[in-house]
């Protein structure tokens, strides 16, 4: 048999086709049942979740179930390649969870949309000339056909795509809400920008230079106001790739400083870009993590990304300027023997000397005749490195700028360098270098012949170079002998008293670069006037529609020409780019923004639009938002942050997507547009399905489905091949699609297999040959209800639950109780195992007689979340006229959960030697007597009196000889 394939059509191996009974549950039967039930659900609007108000309101206004559940999958991108079996793992899991809760009577909102803007469709358009919208819409059709075949219970009325005009009209509206807001640090919240302008106009707030507000020109007023906005424009360092003609994200740059697509050089370049002031929310983004039911690993990743740390800002005078650094270890300032600026630091040009000071070490000059030449050459070289390469490169390089700074702690003159291991995007873009306490600084200092002064006493067992641990301060004057905590407190007080610095909180988090030089994205609802000042458009002019263009690619340049500027596709759409509008000053000519929003924009708020996808007046009706997403302190406690009840997706989105979504939600909350401060109350990260791949002696991958395992070896076309394990992918030739699994086994078999492979949060290997096990279970359950020969229902109607035998009653109610708990806790694999166990009992107990309805129906109902099509079909054949999607889910009778007997393992001198079963009510003396009377224990004791017999009630008996 193939290493990756199983029997076709669901036939049991060894069965001849003609021997299969006419009414056996096979792939053929499954593929006739499943589309019929999918049509039924659609026709009867089975999964439509009513809203309190609006077009999607329930039939009886105001009559809304209080018990609601909002389940959401992370936004998929509609790839043209379609799904492989790894993709639906989370989708099926949320469907099982939602179906279970719907059966218990809850009002469940579960739908799916598409994160449809982005680079792949644009790249395809560049290659083929086909409009990205056509590509995207075709991909969505393909995607929907695949997920429909899986039987996912979605409210299809609520489907959205970020590329829909009716959707990105509101993405643009939210952008304007953030643009027209500022962060009031005293109130610790965002407020409308109009309130800030009113404070300046009423002289409640001073201008930077002390002039009255009315004394300023309109342009000067605009500059002040714009500097406070939560969306602003800034000259920001970006990764510029002339060969691609666009800015690329850090994740798109290789360690060699080249683009992962096309292998073009990347240069760090300052460009005027839109930025979002997410840093204003740094403390709230960290502190509110404590309110969320999220995996601790994700919380840690977000805390580390934001990187809040306490320390001090210290100013080091140099010439007429001062270099400001942030350090978490101000107690080590006496060991600062040189300074380093990032090559992009704005002070570099101001403090670079005209000539080398007399006696400058040649190692400091980079071989240049003047400091200016050395700095320029070094900057050019640094611009071609990625941030990752700059951080991880162990060979420390740099050049002296020809100037010395003054260490404020001891008045020592210390040289100033630029070096690429210091990044402008972190801290202040400058460091005081303390080589005695930092290994990177040690490496640089030893390479450049710079002094090294230890300021912390190393531990006695320390062996190494820089000592990064804690200890008493040394070589630090008035700090000597103090521990780190006391030394930090003392030096901060000294710096503040002498005007050299102050204690500060610092963050790694940078403001969000919110612009892309691409075509396929949301246009900015901004125009520029004759002074090149940005002006937000009024709501009445939304949406700003993305125009059709002939050329979807940005202008590209000589890959090595770092001095070029981006020219995005929209910059060539003159009929769209330049527009005449009346914005309150009469009709004037304006210029639109040729950049587009990043793909993150549409996925920041989609849970809100799921709530109200058809509302044309609001992005979300407040009453509907509060019902589905508002805080529920009675259920979740007084600090409930609100949000989606269950959000499932991969760990790869732990930081950026989730952080950006939380930021947008908090701004909307501050401005009164939503009732909850958090978008996602509970987060669950599903694992991944991985697969074996096979490579020949040349390392070339061969089709996995054509590989056979023979005597422990893997053979392809008669040749032995090497087995590998990892992700599914076309390049590895190991892709298995859900379409082929549904064709060969049916969707329910595929669903049951994926859910039974292991815990939802654990990755697991795919093995097609094992799918047949899930199919055999469903076949056995089917024939417990339906006669395979005649197709007639073989369930006995003359017996009630009370008339079932004791063993069956106990097996049934144990299963009900356990499956209830497993579904609620997302333990779908163990829920499936309990159903298999119950079905096995029923199969044995009723092999020669019809299965009582009292056990058949609960078994079918419990199966429904995992395998909805076969459950609906059996439920219908059992005589029910309506769907079981709304339940009822069976309830366990507590009487049958109490065990009559208890099995005790018997240890002799610590090793289990036998077991004994006694009454659950047996006392310790009875248990002891039964254990000692057990045949094997009698033989081991051999007539001797045991030294001790210990009975642990309900658990074990330990006999000590």
Describe the structure using short key phrases.
four-stranded parallel beta sheet; Ubiquitin-like (UB roll); alpha+beta; Isoleucyl-tRNA Synthetase, domain 2; 961 residues; globular; 32% helix
Report on the structure:
- By secondary structure, the protein is α+β, with helices and mostly antiparallel strands.
- Among the domains are: 309-506, Valyl/Leucyl/Isoleucyl-tRNA synthetase, editing domain (Isoleucyl-tRNA Synthetase, domain 2, Alpha-Beta Complex), CATH 3.90.740.10; 899-960, Ubiquitin-like (UB roll), CATH 3.10.20.590.
- Helices cover 32% and strands 18% of the residues.
- The chain contains 29 helices and 34 strands.
- The strands form 10 sheets. The chain has a 4-stranded parallel beta sheet, sandwiched between helices. Strands 6-5-7-15 form a 4-stranded antiparallel beta sheet. Strands 11-12-10-13 form a 4-stranded mixed beta sheet.
- The radius of gyration is 35 Å and the shape is globular.
- The two termini are 54 Å apart.
- Mean pLDDT is 92; it is low at 1-17.
